[in-house]
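Retro notes (design track)

What went well: tokenization of the new backbones is finally stable.
What didn't: we kept losing track of which sequence belonged to which structure.
Fix going forward: every design gets posted as structure first, then sequence, in one message. First example under the new rule, 581 residues:
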């Protein structure tokens, strides 16, 4: 089977496969052929579509009971703080059948950040499991929100609060008809550069997205999705799970992504499609290679933010067709992938997709030298926008200001950087916070990330700006090496200087070799944290190695004396505040 995606419509333009999500679930359960197919797999357990809808109906009754007890007309907002367990999908099914709203809570956000998310989205009830219960201590100190604990898929001990609650409600489908505009989920953005925003997703949006992805991936009833990206993120819901409802096929859940467990799971479940976001492909290609890696049932992977080198290595090693697309939770930007591939490009932009500067004027096309190095980044890089409007984006919950900013002037403004070449191929250049300014030249960090990721010992690389003594920034990069690798400062500097895509100003002055990098729950590196830590040892910690290089010299250890001198120089230049930012 080919996987071209040529017939897939633009985001938001696929047909609505049922009147609403409740109608789709009921249709799956009432069709004998679909009802007996497997819908969900988790470890050694499985549920057919009929069994999945029956269990979802129990959750729907529980949600309606809690809404009645709360009072008021607003739909019940159910905060779900779980790993990828079947309970997460039952909560979504219950919300579909009761016109409730699932709020996907990110288990990597704790303390005041989790409190903020719960309060911001008006959560009425939290469903969690023992391993996340302690994370809610601070929430319950501040917010009187009921918490139900599931022990059904955990080896923890204690009372089975969730089962107790479910056993006390009436049996059967409550018969609610939510309509396609019922708010089905609030999905937080990744929050790599600012506080996460809660994107509104109605039943219409998730069903249309699922139908479109099913077309793009050419799914049929025998397909099996492998969902190891967190279900609180749009990628897992819209690419991993929702298409299985529309196609009547199944998904296999992994609690969390594991590089070593990925291939055994793919084989065990017979997975045919896989969704990813962030950097998991980098971790997969860094695992020890086996002679039979390509002997697996997987035929297609769909995701975003994979570097060209990593995508190529993943395709070749595992024999999988990869569609690496521009992706955001809002979903209002799309590119045409039915075109010859071009290295580093996401696809061809349609007529309404533009790259604009701060004045909303269109940026000139990118120019490259013979080695593929971008020559005019300061001119060609700008914000990616859709001049036709917001497409499937339905706004941010409880944040009218952010919604207005994203849709100002009738355009959808992605907040992402990119550039177009003469043939309108679109290249991703990072987030709007990813600009680095060296010696008066502005350039994006994204191409530096991609270049450094091509080193054979580098699993993950990110570049960001740290304060220069006099003005602007210096380039710093943090890298994670493959297991057992040791940085050769001389060889690495030589390798960097040989990259045609890295001009002198783009080459990292500072280098951090880390065991791991701060990430969101969706494996996206939080660059603002790295920039805050920069070369301060009290922030970086003792386990990571820091290096610095002077012009024309190899890297050398950045020691305590270097740190003291840098701080003195910043003080002398009147820029001491940058040390503490």
């Amino acid at each position: 089977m080919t996987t071209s995606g040529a017939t897939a419509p633009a985001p938001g333009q696929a047909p609505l496969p049922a009147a609403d999500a409740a109608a789709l679930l009921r249709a799956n359960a009432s069709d004998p052929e679909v009802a007996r197919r497997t819908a969900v797999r988790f470890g050694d357990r499985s549920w057919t579509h009929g069994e999945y809808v029956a269990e979802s109906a129990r959750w729907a009754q529980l949600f309606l009971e809690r809404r009645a007890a709360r009072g008021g007309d607003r739909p019940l907002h159910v905060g779900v703080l779980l790993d990828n367990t079947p309970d997460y999908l039952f909560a979504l099914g219950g919300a579909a059948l009761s016109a409730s709203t699932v709020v996907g809570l990110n288990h990597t956000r704790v303390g005041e950040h989790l409190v903020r998310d719960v309060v911001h989205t008006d959560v009425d009830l939290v469903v969690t499991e023992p391993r996340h219960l302690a994370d809610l201590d601070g929430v319950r100190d501040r917010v009187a929100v009921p918490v139900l604990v599931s022990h059904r898929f955990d080896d923890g001990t204690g009372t089975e609060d969730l089962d107790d609650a479910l056993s006390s409600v009436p049996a059967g489908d409550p018969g609610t008809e939510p309509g396609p505009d019922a708010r089905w989920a609030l999905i937080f953005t990744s929050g790599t550069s600012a506080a996460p925003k809660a994107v509104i997703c109605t039943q219409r949006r998730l069903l249309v997205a699922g139908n479109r992805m099913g077309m793009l991936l050419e799914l049929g009833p025998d397909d099996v999705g492998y969902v190891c990206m967190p279900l609180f993120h749009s990628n897992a819901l819209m690419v991993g799970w929702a298409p299985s409802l529309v196609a009547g096929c199944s998904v296999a859940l992994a609690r969390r992504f594991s590089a070593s467990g990925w291939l055994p799971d793919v084989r065990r479940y017979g997975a045919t499609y896989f969704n990813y976001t962030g950097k998991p492909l980098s971790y997969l290609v860094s695992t020890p290679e086996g002679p039979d890696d390509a002997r697996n049932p997987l035929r297609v992977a769909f995701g975003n933010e994979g570097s060209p080198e990593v995508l190529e290595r993943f395709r070749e090693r595992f024999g999988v067709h990869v569609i690496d697309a521009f992706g955001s939770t809002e979903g209002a930007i799309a590119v045409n992938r039915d075109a010859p591939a071009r290295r580093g490009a996401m696809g061809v932009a349609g007529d309404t997709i533009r790259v604009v500067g701060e004045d909303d004027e269109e940026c000139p096309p990118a120019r490259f030298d013979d080695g593929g190095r971008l020559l005019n980044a300061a001119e060609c890089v700008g914000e990616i926008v859709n001049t036709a409007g917001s497409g499937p984006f339905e706004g941010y919950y409880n944040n009218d200001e952010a919604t207005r900013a994203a849709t100002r002037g009738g355009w959808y403004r992605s907040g992402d950087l990119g550039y177009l070449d003469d043939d309108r191929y679109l290249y991703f250049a990072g987030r709007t916070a990813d600009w680095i300014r060296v010696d008066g030249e502005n350039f994006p960090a994204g191409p530096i990330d991609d270049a450094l990721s091509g080193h054979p010992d580098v699993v993950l690389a990110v570049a960001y700006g740290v304060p220069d003594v006099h003005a602007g920034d210096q380039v710093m990069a943090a890298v994670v090496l493959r297991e057992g690798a040791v940085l050769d400062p001389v060889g690495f500097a030589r390798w960097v200087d040989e990259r045609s895509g890295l001009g002198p100003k783009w080459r990292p002055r500072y280098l951090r070799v880390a065991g791991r990098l701060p990430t969101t729950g969706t494996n996206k590196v939080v660059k603002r944290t790295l920039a805050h830590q920069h070369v301060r040892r009290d922030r970086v910690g003792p386990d990571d190695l820091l290096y610095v290089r002077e012009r024309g010299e190899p890297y050398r250890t950045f020691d305590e004396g270097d740190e003291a001198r840098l701080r003195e120089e910043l003080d002398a230049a009147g820029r001491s505040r940058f040390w503490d930012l």
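Added context from the reviewer: The longest strand covers residues 458-467.
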